[in-house]
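Good day; I would like, with your permission, to put a structural problem before you. A protein sequence and the structure tokens that stand for its backbone fold form the material at issue. Thank you for your consideration; the sequence and its tokens are set out here:
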Amino acid sequence: MRDHEGGPGHEERRLSTQEAAEVLGVKPATVYAYVSRGRLSSRRAPGGRGSTLDAREVEALARRGRREGGGDAGSGADLSVRTRLTLIDQDRYYFRGTDATELAVRHSYEEVAEWLWTGRPRPGAVFTAPGPSVEAARRAVEALPGHSGPVDRLRVAAVAASVTDPLRFDLSEEAVLGTARSLIPTLVAALPAKDPKGPPVDDGPLAGRLWARLSGRAPGPAQLRALDTALGLLADHDLAASTLAVRVAASARAHPYAAVSAGLGVIEGTLHGAACGGAHRLLLGVLDAGHATPVIAEELRAGRRIPGLGHPLYTGEDPRARALFTLLADIPEAAPALAAARDIVATTARHTPLHANVDLALAVLTASGGMQPSAGETIFAVARTAGWIAHALEEYGERPLRMRPSGHYVGPKPPRPFAG
């Protein structure tokens, strides 16, 4: 139970909407907007007439508004959503209060996903996909043009899997967890194997199944561990753009397959999941040239941003990159790519002190594993599905349609005649 100011037994003070509006110096309609944006939480008043708000939340929002310039307490364009899932603080990040890098290094991706979803350990968790779901997803993916990208395939697979599940609109926690445990392996199983002549790898840890879809080379234990850890490291990262899209969909009570599809639609952006491919190609260029200087010089000459470097949420090295680089250092096949990555960081630091981010570490993993540049995007999307489900679960427990920001109209003032 949450502690309240004043010690045990002190009752939580609640305000009506009108009282909250007076504290904030806004209209009641604006208070409703704050609630819909997640800036304040509300609770039904006894008897079901109206809603009440936590007085301390209201007062904290009012103080924040005064600190930020004395204007409207909610006039900022930022969207704040309360979550118990991921905290990013002082160049580290945590899943439900547990250091995420330690969690990913010590536990399988499936175990990390279970922790995100439930907050309870589930040792030895392995996800299995139902046959009808896999069959439908594979048929849909096989019907796509050959030039289709990995996220195209995953998005189509999610839609195909959904139509085999007549109970997909059951949004209870147990039903959503069941969907999650079958959807993630279905997405992986729907991807074409790199060695079509070999037997399909559809059992065992998810990392092994995914490797068979990304590389035609047989992996060693250290390579599988690196891939598994990468999946765990990427499982969630607070409210990234794709995660926000998932929460919006879940707020409208879209079923989990549709919510994941919304995330896949956003992650394909070049500033999100697709950024891994640029780092992979840069790394190959450095390996071909023998050193980073001419490759970096060409990127700068063309006015392009150097991929794989810098992150707005970390002042130092991305902790996900640091954890992955440590594992890659124990893989002999990764040594040339790892040296090239270090060369990229050192060369770029001569004019811009940027640190490696997880895209560069993923590029070392994919390039050294004989994978295509798009492999990092696939890893990213599969991994992040766990976080999307966790956020969808959290959003299903909130008031429906709260993720509804108000538009600030700046168009022509009505009435305006229609000029034909």
Notes: The radius of gyration is 24 Å. Confidence is low (pLDDT under 50) at residues 1-10, 69-78.
